[in-house]
Design goal:
Elements: H1 2-19, E1 53-54, H2 56-66, H3 68-88, E2 94-107, E3 116-133, H4 137-203, H5 209-243, E4 256-257, H6 271-281, H7 283-303, E5 309-325, E6 331-347, H8 355-421, H9 427-462, H10 467-472
Parallel strand pairs: 1-4
Antiparallel strand pairs: 2-3, 3-5, 5-6
Helix pairs in contact: 2-4, 3-4, 4-5, 4-7, 4-9, 6-8, 7-8, 8-9
């Protein structure tokens, strides 16, 4: 019997050791320590090894592979999967084994003295139990667990949706900071060149000292703007590095950003196409619908409490006893008992103080909550789609107008600069013209970035781009015919509502129909005439 018991114990330990562990890739080693300067380094520190250029798609791919919040969402799916497997276990019989072994010593006083009786006994038992019927409670628990698994899968997809949007915003902020620094540098160059020319005039007695001081002030203001742009760049790359799970917390200094944020503008199909796509694909809306399914199954499960439960069982046992009596003479008795029992038992709760009734009402109220939460999420999706759609349209409209304003401001600044050199314009007018040009440059750059953010926002609110899409699509195919519909079938624009079909952007004024690109030196001082 000892050999059998040891065998059972060994088998159980083997199962626990081989099947009881959940293996996963640990987070970056640096995140597990309490020091930055002396942190351990691992593969996470080599994300940008041999990488000289970073596109937006690259950044999103790296974030999908390394962002700890998104990876945690993946493991939440696995935890839900294990709960689903547990629910299946309710259909399996329960098998248990028991073993006991022991000695007993008894002294009995009688007319013949005090004989001592020693007994050594062993007891081995095996029990099997199978739930035959429980009013379908386990069935509805299984269905609820399956919906819970789907819910976690959808929440993982939603984590990807929101994370890739955050990466796009951070990446575009980096591009904007680079452009703002370029504008500040060009402004400084113009102001510095003007300062040099004015100093020559001042030394020749052709310009007052106040003009020299004016341009010195403008040079310093331009340098302040450069510092502000550098700060914006630094904070943007910090945020981007964290989103990509890079332990350094800052991107390599020699890394180049390849985003072309001055791309052409696409016309949009009707807003209804975006609404239909979002309502059919948004993972968070689907997740709320799964929550409603869970609540429904819990109501059905509450009803099952009114049903009887029926179990089948089989019990087997073996008992041996070896008894010795040592007074007035030694004698021994040995016996063995084998037992087998089987049958069914049923239990039905008739009354329990209305607990079942109130639990059922509670489950029904929870289902009502879930029902209205789906409705609220549905309305939120509609609101987000319409807001993103309108944001893209107004951003493109503004960009076309800002492009025209920048073109006119550049011409105006050149004319006023010529007039100031010729002595026909006041210094204040030149300051105004240069300030208008810098403002126009800044507004145009911000507007271009707003268009890129609006594209990313459309992608996010529609929710059609999965992690697999970002990981497998190439740069060329990632350029979408219609913003926000990259991973979805091409919409039938002709079938859209005529009133809103191609609702994107009305044409700019005739003189600004062509969108001029920002020249490399838009704010630079013009060549000497």
């Amino acid at each position: 019997m000892k050999i059998i018991q040891c065998g059972i114990l060994g088998a159980a330990m083997s199962v626990l050791l081989t099947c009881g562990c959940y293996n996963y890739k640990a987070p970056a080693a640096a995140a597990l320590g309490d020091s930055y300067t002396e942190r351990k380094r691992d593969a996470a520190d080599d994300i940008f090894k041999d990488k000289k250029e970073l596109t937006l798609l690259d950044a999103q791919r790296i974030a999908i592979r390394n962002n700890p919040t998104y990876i945690a969402a993946y493991h939440s799916v696995e935890a839900a999967r294990m709960r689903y497997y547990q629910a299946w276990g309710a259909y399996s019989p329960t098998l248990s084994a028991s073993f006991s072994m022991g000695n007993s010593h008894n002294w009995v006083r009688d007319s013949e003295g005090e004989p001592r009786r020693d007994a050594f006994s062993t007891n081995v038992g095996v029990k099997a139990n199978l739930l035959l019927f429980d009013g379908f409670a386990r069935y509805f628990k299984l269905k609820a667990s399956k919906s819970s698994l789907k819910y976690q899968e959808l929440m993982e997809a939603d984590a990807c949706r929101t994370m890739t949007l955050s990466v796009a915003y951070a990446y575009n902020t980096v591009l904007l900071a680079i452009e703002q620094r370029r504008i500040a540098m060009e402004n400084r160059k113009f102001q510095f060149d003007s300062l040099q020319n004015t100093r020559y005039k001042f030394e020749a007695g052709a310009a007052p000292l106040s003009d020299v001081l004016n341009f010195e002030i403008q040079v310093n203001n331009a340098e302040v703007n450069m510092i502000a742009a550098d700060y914006s760049y630094d904070t943007a790359i910090y945020a981007l590095a964290v989103l990509m799970g890079y332990p350094d917390g800052v991107l390599p200094a020699d890394l180049k950003f390849a985003g072309d944020f001055k791309s052409s503008f696409a016309e949009l199909p009707a807003v209804e196409i975006y609404l239909d796509a979002a309502l059919a694909n948004r993972p968070d809306l689907k997740a709320y619908r799964e929550q409603l399914n869970i609540a429904k199954y819990q109501v059905y499960q509450a009803w099952s409490a009114y049903s009887p439960t029926v179990n089948g069982y089989v019990n087997m046992g073996f008992k041996s006893t070896d008894q010795d009596t040592n007074y007035p003479y030694t004698s021994g008795i040995y016996n063995e008992d084998f037992s087998l029992g089987y049958g069914i038992n049923a239990e039905w709760t008739i009354f329990n103080g209305a607990i079942r009734y109130n639990k059922l009402r509670e489950a029904q109220a929870s289902m009502a909550v879930a029902d209205f939460e789906v409705a609220a999420r549905w309305l939120k999706v509609v609101d987000e789609v319409r807001a993103a759609y309108a944001n893209y349209i107004q951003s493109v409209k503004k960009t076309k107008l800002y492009a025209r304003v920048r073109e006119l401001s550049a011409k105006q600044r050149d004319l006023v600069d010529d007039e100031y050199r010729a002595g026909n314009a006041e210094l204040t007018r030149l300051n105004e013209a240069q300030r208008d040009l810098v403002d126009a440059e800044t507004s145009l750059a911000s507007s271009y970035i707003n268009v890129q953010n609006a594209k990313a926002q459309l992608d996010s609110v529609v929710g059609g781009n999965t992690a697999e899409y970002y990981l497998n699509v190439d740069e060329k195919n990632s350029q979408q015919s219609y913003p926000g519909l990259g991973n979805l079938p091409e919409p039938d624009v002709k079938a859209a509502t005529p009133a809103e079909t191609k609702a994107a952007v009305p044409a700019a004024p005739a003189q600004g129909a062509a969108i001029p690109a920002i020249p490399a030196s838009a704010t630079a001082k013009p060549a000497a005439r």
